[in-house]
Each structure stands twice: as C-alpha cells, then as structure tokens.
Amino acid sequence: MKTVTLSTLSALKRAGEPFSCLTAYDASFARAAGEAGIEVLLVGDSLGMVLQGHASTLPVTLDEVCYHTRCVARGKGRSLLMVDLPFMSNASQERLLQDAGALMRAGAELVKVEGEAWMAEGIRELTRRGVPVCAHLGLTPQSVYQLGGYKVQGREADQATRILEDARTLVEAGASVILLECVPASLGRAVSETLEVPVIGIGAGPDTDGQILVMHDVLGVSHGRAPRFVKNFMVDADDIQGAFRHYHEDVKARRFPAEAHCF
Ligand code: KIV
Ligand code: NA
Questions:
Q1: Nearest to 42 by CA among 83, 88, 11
Q2: Complex ipTM
Q3: Is 53 inside a domain boundary?
Q4: Which of 12, 90, 117, 176 could form a disulfide with 169 if both were Cys (CB 3.0 to 4.6 A apart)?
Q5: What are phi and psi of 180, to 5 degrees?
Q6: How far, in Å, is the centroid of ligand 1 from the Cα of 213?
Q7: What is the domain extent for residue 116?
Q8: Strands 199-202, 210-213: parallel, antiparallel or unpaired by DSSP?
Q9: For ligand 1, atom 8, which residue shows the shortest CA distance?
C-alpha cells in the first residue's frame, strides 16, 4: 500500500473503490491494521468505552487522546491517521483550535468533530489553518444523553433531509470527509452520491465510500450486546492479523456490510 492521504481517498471515491477504516489505540494493533491494508486508522474517543470501561465517550480527555495518538502514530505505517476531538473541545472557537493543534502535533493527519450545521464556523477556522476535518453526523455519541441512547438517526424523512443538508453545509465550510453513524442505508447512499468528498459509514449501509468499525468489535471482544452493524471477523480467522485482513477484503469486495448489518 502507498501512503494514504486525503487525495488517495478522493481518488478511491472517484474510482468507485470502497476503502476500509478501523479504530486503533496503540502501536502494535495500528501496525497490524496497516499491514492488512486498512487505509484509515481512527484514534476514536470510543477509547473511553473499549479501553477505559466507561458507559460513554464523554469522560475522555484531550491528554488521553493525545497519548493514544502518539502511540498509534509510531506504528501506523502508511495508513492515514484520523483522531477524534473529545467532548467539549467545541466549547469555544479558541478551545477548538487549541485542541486540534494538540492533536496535529501528536500525529493526527485529519481531525474528526461531532456536530451539526452549527459546526461550520469552527470547521472553516480549522481548515483555514491547515487542519483537515472529518465531520461526524447521524448518531453522535458525545450527544448520547441528549439523544436518549444509541439510536438510529434519520429514519424520518425530515430528519434525513436535515442530515443531508448539514453534511452539505459542513463540506461547503471546508470538511474534507463526512462520517455517518447509524443511519438508514438509503441516507448513507444519498449523502455519498450527493457529496464530492469521501463519506465513511458505520451502520450507514453498503453504499458509503468507506466503512469503519471499532477494533474491539472486529475482534469480538466488546462487552455488552453488539450493535447490529458490527461483525466479529475472528470467527473465520486464525489470528488477529487474519481478522483485519478479512475485514479489509470484505469491505473492498463489498461483502461487508451485508443486509443484516444495515438499517
Ligand atoms: O470513537 C469512535 O470509535 C468513532 C467511530 C465509531 C466512528 O467515532
Ligand atoms: Na468517536
């Protein structure tokens, strides 16, 4: 695999070739994922749940995300490194810029922010300063207490239209990538077809330009009931490297996600 950049993702989108993304939190798993061909690694604030055992992503701090980013950056090989801005990094424009700066200095190549159309100004300021942004829409886990749980978003037509409009607004503001979580497959397709930038989906159907999963779900070691959109790739693999390879190959061949993983 050649070094993956934002241009690589755009070229894959234009060529109609899906790409795979996976969360990573340390150097060893990052290396294994990169060697499996996975194009994008995400230091997700899901680390609050899968590493720290919290019930949500809210307790995760900037320092913790920076620590894991430095670990992943040392092992990641040629994959593109995306990193989450933690809860309340968007408390002010000043804080957003400072926190994004810290992530970039730690090794991030793309920062991900949750938020709807109102994040446009923040995204504009970040991209002006050379920080590429992925905007995370649909189910935004940092708002879990406002959403009333981890639920599918955009089922109603007006809600779906709003998510599509928000995505358009954030791309106009400078977002280089959109990530859609837990939305109907029809909305995942509509957003991907409408936008020129790459769209990554998790529980967003088979037609987004990229797919992402949490590493622990791919390895079948998450606790609690697995969401419908995940798949344990260890079931048919001999080892962890094999599970990463199967995930990557299944995304590339459009075997994953299957009907059973979609809304
Ligand atoms: O934190 C995370 O792992 C994420 C992915 C689920 C997209 O944001
Ligand atoms: Na996240």
A1: 83
A2: 0.99
A3: yes
A4: 117
A5: -115, 125
A6: 7
A7: 6-261
A8: parallel
A9: 44
The answer to the question of residue 138 being in a domain is yes
Query: How many domains in the chain?
Result: 1
Give the CATH number of the domain where residue 130 resides. 3.20.20.60
Tell me if 52 is assigned to some domain. yes
Bridge-based pairing state of the strands 19-23 and 133-138: unpaired
For the chain, 263 residues long, give each residue's pLDDT as a single digit of tens. Answer: 899 999 999 999 999 999 999 999 999 999 999 999 999 999 999 999 999 999 999 999 999 999 999 999 999 999 999 999 999 999 999 999 999 999 999 999 999 999 999 999 999 999 999 999 999 999 999 999 999 999 999 999 999 999 999 999 999 999 999 999 999 999 999 999 999 999 999 999 999 999 999 999 999 998 888 899 999 999 999 999 999 999 999 999 999 999 999 99
Q: Is residue 1, in this structure, part of any structural domain at all?
A: no
Whether 181 is catalytic = yes
**Mutation probe of ligand 1 site: the residue of 21, 29, 41, 46 with most atoms within 8 A of C-beta:** 46
